[in-house]
Amino acid sequence: MAINLRLNGKTHQVDADPGTPLLWVIRDELKMTGTKFGCGVASCGACTVHVDGEPVRSCQTYIGDLEDAEVTTIEAMSENRIGAAVQQAWVELDVVQCGYCQSGQIMSAVGLLSSNPSPTAEDIDSYMYGNACRCATYQRIRAGIQRAAEILEA
């Protein structure tokens, strides 16, 4: 079935069953590999993208539910003021270790800062809960989000 998907500001026509997870359309059909497969059950956050500005787990978001929605992936985050600040903070503080989960971490961090531009450490921990990092860089992720908030405040 042909479905129109608005992704990173462009409309793509994809031939997919409406029950196909967005993750597989992004990675396999559109060849955008920044969004990662982690668990497949929306528990780890590696596959996080934005739908209409809100972070969602793309492994459990179905392509048939996205008519008229705007999907944004990590590939477009540098074009977003908040996304660029988060990415700058990640580089400044050397947040990444292995990097596998980081696109999902960044997408969630952007979601947090979009709704709460001055989060406390507790706000960050609460919002980011469910974004797993096997390298346990949680302190650096928290510091990165706090630094991004400072960058945005300046």
Automatic annotation (TrEMBL):
Keyword annotations: 2Fe-2S, Iron, Iron-sulfur, Metal-binding, Oxidoreductase
What GO MF terms are annotated?
2 iron, 2 sulfur cluster binding; metal ion binding; oxidoreductase activity
Question: Coiled-coil stretches, from where to where?
Answer: none
InterPro entries under this entry? 2Fe-2S-bd, 2Fe-2S-bd_dom_sf, 2Fe-2S_ferredoxin-like_sf, 2Fe-2S_ferredoxin-type, 2Fe2S_fd_BS, Beta-grasp_dom_sf, Diverse_Oxidoreductases
Q: What is a single Pfam family found in this protein's UniProt entry?
A: Fer2_2
Domain annotation 2Fe-2S ferredoxin-type: ranges: 1-77
Q: Which CDD domains match?
A: fer2
Write down the PANTHER family for this protein, in alphabetical order: BLR6218 PROTEIN (PTHR44379:SF2), OXIDOREDUCTASE WITH IRON-SULFUR SUBUNIT (PTHR44379)
**Protein name according to UniProt:** (2Fe-2S)-binding protein
State the organism of origin.
Answer: Roseobacter ponti
Q: Show the taxonomic lineage.
A: Bacteria, Pseudomonadati, Pseudomonadota, Alphaproteobacteria, Rhodobacterales
